[in-house]
Amino acid sequence: MQQDSRTIGLEELGGQGETLVLVHGLGGSTNTWFPQAQVLKRDFRIVAYDLAGSARSRAAGDISMARHVEDLLAVVHDTGSPRVHLAGHSMGTIVCQYFAAEHPELVASLALLGAFPEPPEAARNALRERAAKARAEGMRGIADAIVAGGTSDDTKTNQPAVLAFVRESLMAQPPEGYAANCEALAGAKAADLSRIACPTLVLNGDQDRTAPPDVGRAIVSAVRGAEFVLLPGCGHWPTVERAKQVNYALSLFYARLRKPQQAPGEGDAPAQPEAVPVPGFQP
Length: 283
Prior knowledge:
Number of helices: 11
Structural class: alpha/beta
Strand order of the largest sheet: 3-5-4-6-7-8-9
CATH class: Alpha Beta
Distance between the termini: 43 Å
C-alpha cells in the first residue's frame, strides 16, 4: 500500500467477518502476530501491516507517532470496513491508543499487549542512545540485548525458538528505519485515554520490564470499562512467549463482545478490571 512517500507492507492473513487490524511494536513485523492470526481468523478478517521504517515497510521522510496514526487511518480506510477491531503490541499500543482516542467512531474494540502510554524519561534517553547505536553499528548488538532483557526467565530456559524469533525480528530491521522509530517512541506523549470509548483489553506479562503490570493497570484505570489480564512467566513479547494464553484471553474477550448486551440491572454485576491470570502456564 502506498501512503505518500512511504510503501506500507500490508498483509491479509485470512478469515472473514469483521476486520481486526494488528499493529506490531518496535522491532516487530506482521509476523509478531502470526500465532494469533491463525486462531482469530476463524472469527475475523485479519489485516496486519509493518509500521513505517519497520521490516518490509520502507519510509522516506518523517517517522513519528503522528505519522504512524495517519498510516493506521489509511490502512483502516483501505480495508473498506466502517469500523475495525484494533490490537497493538508495545509501541503499537501507543499508536492504537491515539487512534482510538482520535477516531472513536472507527474502533469497535481495543486489545493492548505489553501496553504503556508513553516511555518514562530514563527510557527516552535509552531509546535515543539505541538509535545512535543502530546507525553506527547495525542491529546485531541491539538484537542480543532485546533477547536478554525483553523475555522472561521461563522463555530463556524453555523456549529457545522464541528467543530465535525475537532475535531474527530485530536483525531483520533496517537500521535507519529502526533508529527513526526509536526516536519517534522517545518523543511519544500519552494519548487522552479518557476519550477511548470502546471495549478495551490490556494484557501485560509479569516479567515485562518495558511495560510492567502496574503500567497496564494504570491504563485500565484510565479507560472506562477496560479489563486487565496478567500473563504469568511472560516478558515483553507475549504474542510469542505466551501465544496460547494470549489466544485464549483474546478469544474470550471477543466472544463476550459478540454476546447480546444485558439491560442495566439484569444478570450478574459487571466484572471489575482486576488482574486475571490466564490458565495454562505452569512455572
